[in-house]
Amino acid sequence: MPFNKEPPHQHGTVAKSAIVLVNLGTPDAPTRPAVRRYLKQFLLDPRVVEIPRAVWKLILYLAILPFRSGQSARKYATIWRRDGSPLKVYTERQATALQAMLVQRGHHDVEVAMAMRYGVPALPDVLDELKARGAERIVVLPAYPQYSGTTTASIWDAVFDHYKKVRNIPELRLVKHYHDHEGYIEALAHSVETYWDAHGRGDKLVMSFHGVPKRTLLLGDPYHCECHRTARLLAARLRLAPDQYMVTFQSRFGKAEWLQPYTAPTVQQLARAGVKRIDVMCPGFTSDCLETLEEINMEVRHDFESNGGQDYHYIPCLNDNPSWIVGMAEIAEQHLIGWPTMLTPAQREAQRRDAETAREHAIKMGA
């Protein structure tokens, strides 16, 4: 198998580190052709749909793509911004803000880049661009706090498949999950508290996570457990009693059983039971997207209000909230530990003085 052409090597250059923030992906436009291209790439991933390939391709090409592409395009059109897809816009802002935060914290040689698992900028292209710019140490940071074989593992597949064609592979570190990381939980709590300060507090906080087929849990996928751990930690941080919050799962697809309880039926039941106000958030999504802005803030809102609910509040995702940028920096720093960093002259001098002081202290203690 031929390998990709290597960029010219320059002797004496300082090896750089990079962080690749990888999100799921998005169509290029809210149009049927663009959505069809995106769905085709997404739904052909064997990590996403574990049905025998021949059978699944028949279903995909004959039933799903011809009909779902137009339906999804109309939904994307309801949330599309002037500057593009919300998921892409917020992920770009996160990468830019993370870069600035890391520089502020002394990581002057770390480049942050954004990539998509499906769509553009494609993850393999971003990895090639970083290599051409001298990145020899790369941290891959998924935008998925909770690990799942359908999401995080798919990113690993793309990374490993890409490097099968590379002769000189950089040093790699892969962030598997951060569902219980203090910085992530604190950012979620800050988001909720800020919203409550501005809009009051509802009778129930509904934490809606993206659903996956139940069989993945039975086969050993930790996603379900990690979602519930996130919810418990956030509830404890917000000082919520067990009856003041609940965990649900959204975005069910197909006829198979998925993780339960399902978000839409649960919200309908709450409304029929007389709950007047609920606050809904999506902790598993770090950027607002179709599943949060259209499904949760539009469709599920309608489900609640049409069944007697009076006051429905959607709490936005973390997006580029400063508290989340700090949390991301803390997560990134933990995975940069041990890699050399470039220092400014002042930092290098301070480091030299500290080392000299420590050396003198050690000599005195030994004497």
Automatic annotation (TrEMBL):
<feature type="binding site">
    <location>
        <position position="210"/>
    </location>
    <ligand>
        <name>Fe(2+)</name>
    </ligand>
</feature>
<feature type="region of interest" description="Disordered">
    <location>
        <begin position="347"/>
        <end position="367"/>
    </location>
</feature>
<dbReference type="Pfam" id="PF00762">
    <property type="entry name" value="Ferrochelatase"/>
</dbReference>
<keyword id="KW-0408">Iron</keyword>
<dbReference type="InterPro" id="IPR033659">
    <property type="entry name" value="Ferrochelatase_N"/>
</dbReference>
<keyword id="KW-0479">Metal-binding</keyword>
<feature type="binding site">
    <location>
        <position position="291"/>
    </location>
    <ligand>
        <name>Fe(2+)</name>
    </ligand>
</feature>
<dbReference type="InterPro" id="IPR019772">
    <property type="entry name" value="Ferrochelatase_AS"/>
</dbReference>
<protein>
    <recommendedName>
        <fullName>Ferrochelatase</fullName>
        <ecNumber>4.98.1.1</ecNumber>
    </recommendedName>
</protein>
<comment type="similarity">
    <text>Belongs to the ferrochelatase family.</text>
</comment>
<keyword id="KW-0350">Heme biosynthesis</keyword>
<dbReference type="GO" id="GO:0016829">
    <property type="term" value="F:lyase activity"/>
</dbReference>
<keyword id="KW-0456">Lyase</keyword>
<comment type="function">
    <text>Catalyzes the ferrous insertion into protoporphyrin IX.</text>
</comment>
<comment type="pathway">
    <text>Porphyrin-containing compound metabolism; protoheme biosynthesis; protoheme from protoporphyrin-IX: step 1/1.</text>
</comment>
<dbReference type="InterPro" id="IPR001015">
    <property type="entry name" value="Ferrochelatase"/>
</dbReference>
<keyword id="KW-0963">Cytoplasm</keyword>
<dbReference type="InterPro" id="IPR033644">
    <property type="entry name" value="Ferrochelatase_C"/>
</dbReference>
<feature type="compositionally biased region" description="Basic and acidic residues">
    <location>
        <begin position="349"/>
        <end position="367"/>
    </location>
</feature>
<keyword id="KW-0627">Porphyrin biosynthesis</keyword>
